[in-house]
Amino acid sequence: MRTSLKKHLILLIIFSMVMALAVGCAPKAEGPSDEPATIDEEPAETPEPSDDEGEAAEEPDVADLEPYELTYFMLCNNVSPDADQIVERANEILKEKINATLDLVMLDWGTWDERFNTAMNAGEKIDIAFTADWWGYLDAVANNFFLPLNDPDDNLLEKYAAQTVKDLGEGFIVGSQINGVNYGVPTDKEFAVNGGLVWRKDLAEKYGFDMQSVNSIEDLEPMLKVIKENEPNIIPYLVEQGGGNYMIPFIDFFKGVGVSYDDLEDTEVKWFWDREDRIQMAKTHHKYYKEGYIHKEAYTENNRYNDHLLEGDFFVTQQPLKPMKGKSTELMSAAGNKFPLDEKEITPYVAHSLHAAGSMLAIPRTSEDPARAMMFINLMHVDAELANLFVWGIEGVHHKVVQEDPKRVAPIEGNTWTQAVLPWTLGNVFNHWLGEHEDPNKHEGFRMTKEAPAHITLGYRFINTQDYQAEAAAYDNAMSEYSSIMATGAVEDFDGTYQKMVEAAEAAGIRKIQEAVQADLNRWLEEQGKK
Amino acid sequence: MSVGPIAPTIIDTKDTKVTKRGDSPNKLSPKANFVLNLILTLAMLACVLPLVIVISVSLSSESTILKEGYGLLPKDFTLDTYKFAFSDPRSIVNAYKVTIYTTIMATIICLVNVSLFAYPLSRPDFKFRTEITFFMFFTMLFGGGLVAYYILMTGFLGLRNSLWAIILPYSFNSFWVIVMRTFFRTQVPLSLIESARIDGAGEWRTFTQIVLPISLPGLATVALFTTLGVWNDWFNCILFIDKPELANLNTLIYRALTSARMLREIIATMGAAGSADAAAEIANLPNETFRMALAVITMGPIVLAYPFFQKYFIRGLTVGSIKG
Question: In a designed cystine with A349, which of A82, A192, A224, A437 is the match (CB 3.0 to 4.6 A)?
Fold first, then answer.
């Protein structure tokens, strides 16, 4: 018995030594790089850094650049088989401007996490990757995945993307920082988003409703009554199972804990469900549910809110809006212009961190040439040809031009490219051509939001989320039972359920999270000299 | 009491036994029979009904599904979804090619590897069989984890964007080696191998012409499970394959299904205010009927694989349970 065990052990050791030898002999191509900061120290290879603005000075001298392949992890709706054609065209531009070629990795929503996180943990070379506050930005930074871009020693943003920084403006740059460090370059697009109501315009006209006088969901009651009585196939008031409370001016820092944005100076951290306006809205929902204004299936049917939106079988609903009635235009075209919609803004335009970092391109630590990656990001922002190639594909294959000057294009029916890409992740939205049905003033509207007043917390993020993982998980678990019944009002006894929910959340540790966020925010305010 | 009247009674009972032919000693009472049949019928329905619903949804229009919910029969029969799915057939046709190619390759390679590995281990005259079995068994207990696997596949073997990244992981399986070893040991009598040797057959001839033909049930089991495994694989494809034309069927359907779920999760947890752009993209994702149609298209030929393997299947499955 003993001898056989010894034999096993010896064999095992030999086996592992052979394996170690084999791995050691492998070409050292993609080992995890532990020293990312030292990647670009040779000044001969990098273009002259220039601190002054002015495009001529920052344009790198292409002749000095070695050929390089940029690996770009692009977030998409789907993977298009036409990617090769686009890359071929993009390479023509990139070779000329920065002597680089593109290795485009299209990843859809469902596969991103697995692919990106595994590749990063394995130390695979990635030069550019999408990220956003709602898409794991904090976790990625906590895991040390991304390079700091405004490092005083090697300020990539200033060196290679001065024009982009200027176009973006201070709001975007400061708003997307974590403790003063930029880990991503935001897409230049609308800066503030507000919430309001979207409704079926034809129905409102049919019954002569004055929708512009509505300022709260309580004001809707008489209208919902009329719709309920006269339109049996229409859901009078459509609510989202997950929450859908866009009319509450709230900045959520972590797990439903945050501040108000209608008061620009508000620094008192509150739990969402402690807010008077949130409780009031839930009460009204409960009332509407009992009256039948909210359809009975609202909380049982699994996430069909968006299907109803596109089907148009509702009268009114809450939505995050876009300037110049952008939201209703967008929804109408998504639904194939089957029905007319209109919208009204309820909450004010205020700039805060959540929007500033709503879509960014970051440079992972595994990049072998961060300078070139930054040049590419800059090119996406300043080069309209490159950006539009990504957004609209190739003329005659993916889009057709319906109007010159200002250029307007329409996607060609059935092409897989324009449907797959997410234009709001691609550089500078103000450079993108407008679609056939888009509002001609879309860009002016977007520009207007860049002038929105900034909330005092702009640039603040609660980053110590890892220290509160247990509380966060317990909180999610506790709330999963209540969030959809409270959102849709499908409860028997409102006050009792509310009480139970508060108790469950407190047992899970929501107060601890609230205190931690408040303390962290106070520290940040002090550091920034805002308090 | 004479012997006479007794004998006919015996014959009588014998007769009745003969007439009730189905009355085997294992026969169930009618009550138990009914209950068992009921349970099995319910189990069968639980398996079949979802499939019927998937097919029915794929043949309905989205608005009907939204208004009237799911049904066992499509309420308005339409092939629109399938027309849409095949409007750009490149993805699906390519995916079919990739899936069929990788499945066949992996199954063949796996059968060769597993049987060649298991056969020596089943022979008592092979000296190091315990040690080698232990090594193999060791890999079943401990693995290097995902990151090590990823580095091995991409860095060391260089299989990024290669179909071998789907084939190789299925080319060998320790568990099937143990099953096959047990099968060889229990189903192939040692005396048969000995007699083959006496007749002058070498090891290769014994293996290919004597052992393999009588081991078909075991091989069929291994083949079926490998086929199913490769056919249903999406994980390797997602990790190692970026080129759209090399994606397999299940990756297509995985993408269509999880993308919508992922977006909904984001909206629910992050609040659409923070992710307004993302929230709007749900409109551009494949809808319910399309996803179901994709599921139906994906099922395709793999359904046909079952009857093909079935006649060996059950015999092969029980092998693992026999003490080896």
Answer: A192
